[in-house]
Structure formats: structure tokens, C-alpha cells
Write a structure and sequence with these properties.
- This is SET domain-containing protein.
- The chain has 442 residues and is an alpha+beta fold.
- 40% of the residues lie in helices and 14% in strands.
- The chain has 14 helices and 13 strands.
- The protein is globular, with a radius of gyration of 26 Å.
- The structure holds zinc ion.
């Protein structure tokens, strides 16, 4: 599988002149809508299961519904909320940063264009634009590899997607009481393919070729060739779809959508060695058991062969323990009357042990890792151990970059909540430290 990111500096230096930048509005128009019995339609294309995609049939259906496509001025923003538009975004971007062909609603277009800072230029990768390469990954196809050592938190790439389409499409053709769910599904797949044809058709020839060469594992389920590639390579991020690098349950990188630059940021979640393969996770929860992870990955058409999945017994047990790390942490209040200071025994050593477990499982990307790094930073600060404090401050800041470095609405809200909670915790900690130092313990 070739990597999905193609809209980078290397591929967009020559922007074809004929690229459309006008918006296209899809309007149902006036006139009667014919109700079509899809049972007959489905028989013609070979039954209900795995029916081949009959795009001609959809053309006919769409014509009967009088779907009109018209070109609009791309600067218009007053489209109705639920009107679907094909638009190139950002319309006025630096050509080096590239543009995305988007199929979005009027509401979504306003949300994109009105986002504070949009369209900002893309940030440059920490280790330069040539810090990674695409190369054969044994047993998997093409993968992304590091060209140099990278540090936790480094920006590996920031790229605009080639295409942005909605996760779900509503069927445009009215269903009759005889319509089966499978027919409905086939119809939506036809619509998706039609939309993809329009979007891909607006890309430069170079990008079109690159898109068509991407791997497609949806060849047997009624997906058309273009939508099949999309289903194979795209992942959902907040309101958008975006392409990705390989999945692992021990990812060394994480992706976040950044609305002001309309791009996807990929950052290192731990230090990466030169020539190491760069991976992210396709899963929303890495702490679920191996069998469950494999089940969730089945739609991508592959079995994960990472170190964790290869040793399910030990890995599942470790991840079960790590699940508990997400639970609220209460600063140890028990202060022994005598003996060694409690900070090492009650805070630092258990946290170091837990952080080692997360590192062994390759889980530096999870939220608990950042929380624990911050806890160590605070603990060592109290002990006056400057070297260790600095080390964990760096890890904590790098983790924050990965988690909150990108700026989309959902992340901003979460960051606010996180900040409030952190302030509360810090206040509580300070009070505890004060109490402890009054009692002569450090
Ligand atoms: Zn795995």
C-alpha cells in the first residue's frame, strides 16, 4: 500500500492550469421525483449480494431525480446548511502547501472557512521536509520510514489531504417499501463512487494517477474503484476524512487534524531511530484485548502483526493493568511518622514502574503517559532533583504537543477541560506539598 499523503510539496509544485477552483453546487431542482423500485434494478445487476457497481444505472436514477450540478463562485459562503458542495480548499492557498478537493455541506464549508486563522501556511517538519521516505515494508507493502533520528514530540509531517468527503451519505433516491437494506447500501456506494469521480476529476493529473495507485481492499463489496481506495486509506478525524500511514498497536507517531492550516499533523510519540518504520494506530482505544483489536481492524483488510499482537497473553495482561492508569489519581496523603521520605515510595517509584510498563507496551501515545510524566516532573521538582525534573518536563511537553499541538474545535474544547482539571490538581498538590513541608517531610 502506498502512503495516502500525496499532496505534499513534492507533488504539488506543478499545479495543472485546468484545475477547477469554482464551487459546484448540487441542487435537487424543481420537478417531480420518480419513485423507483430498486428490487428490479438490483436483479438486473446480478442479485443482492456483491452486486457489481452499475454506475450507468445510477446516472439514470439521478437524472430522473433531476440532480443538477452547477458551478458557483468559490468565495460564496451563504449556501443553505444542508446543500452539498464540491469546493477546493483553501481556495487561496500557497501552491506549495497544496489544496484539498472537498465534498461538504454548506454548513461545513462555512465552518472550514470561518475557522480562526484559516488558511494558515503549513508548519515545517522539525527535521526538515526529507525526514522520511516511502519504502517496501516486509509483508505489508509500502510503509513510511524515518530518514534520521527523531525526538518525542517532533513534527514529522503536516499535509493537506487530497480529498475530504463525508463519512456517510444519505441515499438521494427515495426508497419504496420493497427496498432492502442491501439495496440501500448498494445505492449509497454508487452515489459515493459518482461523487469520488467528480472530486478525483478535479485533481491534477499527477495526483489523480497517484490516487488511483493507492491500495484498494474493497474490491468485493460493491464499492467502486475510487471509493474502494478511499475506504482502504482514509480515516475519520473530527469532521473530516484523512489518509494515513500504517497501523500498529505500538504506534510511534500520532496524527491530529489542524483546522487553521487545513492539514493533518503527524508527530513522533516517542524517540524514533533512523530507518525505523513510522506507524500510527487506526484504533481509538489501544488498551482493548488483542482479539478485539484484530476484530476492529478487519475492515482495513489486514491482521496486525505488531509485537503486542504477536504476544497476546503478556500484552493483554499489561494493557489491562494500564487501563487502570486512566482512573483519577489521588496524591498520597499518608505521611509516616518516621522512616524515609514518602515521595520516593509513594509517588516516584510507583509512577516510574507504571511508566516503564507503558513504554514496554509502546503506549507513549496514550493520555495516561503524559499525566504520569507530569506527575514525575512535579515529584522530582519537590525533591530538588533538577536533572530528572528536566527530563520529565520535556516528556510532558512533548506529550502535550502530540495531544494538543493541533488546533481543531474538538481538541480545543478538550484542552480547555484538561487545563481546568490540571489547575485544580496543581492547587491540590501545592496544598499537599505545603502541608507536608510544614510537617517537616520532603
Ligand atoms: Zn497490533
Amino acid at each position: 500500500m502506498k502512503r495516502g499523503f500525496l499532496n505534499n510539496a513534492k507533488t504539488t509544485k506543478t499545479v495543472k492550469k485546468a484545475v477547477l477552483t469554482a464551487d459546484i453546487e448540487r441542487d435537487s431542482g424543481p420537478g417531480t421525483v420518480n419513485v423507483i423500485d430498486l428490487a428490479a434494478q438490483s436483479k438486473e445487476v446480478g442479485g443482492l449480494k456483491r452486486a457489481p457497481v452499475a454506475l450507468d444505472g445510477l446516472d439514470e436514477l439521478l437524472q430522473q431525480k433531476r440532480i443538477i450540478h452547477k458551478e458557483m463562485d468559490s468565495s460564496l459562503l451563504d449556501h443553505p446548511d444542508d446543500l452539498w458542495i464540491i469546493t477546493t480548499q483553501p481556495a487561496t492557498a500557497d501552491e506549495l502547501d497544496g489544496r484539498s478537493e472537498c465534498y461538504v455541506s454548506g454548513r461545513a464549508k462555512r465552518a472550514i472557512v470561518n475557522f480562526p486563522g484559516f488558511p494558515s501556511s503549513l508548519p515545517r517538519p522539525t527535521n526538515g521536509a526529507n525526514c522520511w521516505r516511502v519504502e517496501n515494508s516486509p509483508g505489508k507493502g509500502m510503509g513510511v520510514f524515518a530518514n534520521c533520528d527523531m525526538k518525542q514530540g517532533d513534527l514529522i509531517m503536516a499535509e493537506r489531504p487530497l480529498l475530504v468527503i463525508p463519512a456517510m451519505m444519505e441515499p438521494m433516491i427515495p426508497m419504496t417499501m420493497h427496498t432492502t437494506p442491501e439495496q440501500m447500501r448498494q445505492l449509497v456506494l454508487l452515489q459515493q463512487e459518482k461523487t469520488m469521480e467528480m472530486l478525483v476529476g478535479r485533481l491534477t493529473e499527477e495526483d489523480q494517477k497517484a490516487y488511483r495507485e493507492l491500495y484498494n481492499c474493497h474490491t468485493e463489496d460493491g464499492s467502486g474503484p475510487l471509493f474502494g481506495v478511499h475506504r482502504t486509506n482514509a480515516l475519520e478525524v473530527s469532521d473530516y476524512f484523512e489518509p494515513v500511514v500504517y497501523s500498529s498497536c505500538r504506534p510511534n507517531a500520532a496524527r491530529e487534524w489542524d483546522s487553521p492550516t487545513f492539514s493533518l499533523h503527524l508527530r513522533a510519540t516517542r524517540n524514533i531511530k533512523k530507518d525505523e518504520e513510522i506507524t500510527i494506530t487506526y484504533l481509538s482505544d489501544l488498551l482493548i484485548p488483542t482479539a478485539e483489536r484484530q476484530y476492529q481492524l478487519r475492515s482495513y483488510g489486514f491482521q496486525c502483526g505488531c509485537e503486542a499482537c504477536s504476544n497476546p497473553t503478556s500484552s493483554d495482561a499489561n494493557r489491562k493493568k494500564i487501563q487502570k492508569f486512566g482512573e483519577p489519581f489521588f496524591q498520597p496523603m499518608a505521611i509516616p511518622r518516621s522512616g524515609p521520605p514518602p515521595l520516593m515510595d509513594l509517588l516516584i517509584n510507583p509512577t516510574l514502574r507504571d511508566i516503564k510498563l507503558m513504554e514496554d507496551e509502546g503506549l507513549e501515545s496514550i493520555k495516561a503517559y503524559g499525566d504520569y510524566a507530569g506527575r514525575l516532573m512535579n515529584g522530582y521538582m519537590q525533591l530538588g532533583n533538577k536533572t530528572e525534573e528536566k527530563k520529565w518536563r520535556r516528556a510532558s511537553v512533548a506529550h502535550k504537543l502530540v495531544w494538543w499541538g493541533a488546533r481543531n474545535t474538538a481538541i480545543k474544547e478538550a484542552a480547555e477541560a484538561e487545563k481546568k482539571q490540571k489547575e485544580m490538581m496543581e492547587k491540590m498538590l501545592e496544598e499537599t506539598w505545603a502541608k507536608m513541608s510544614r510537617m517537616g517531610v520532603n
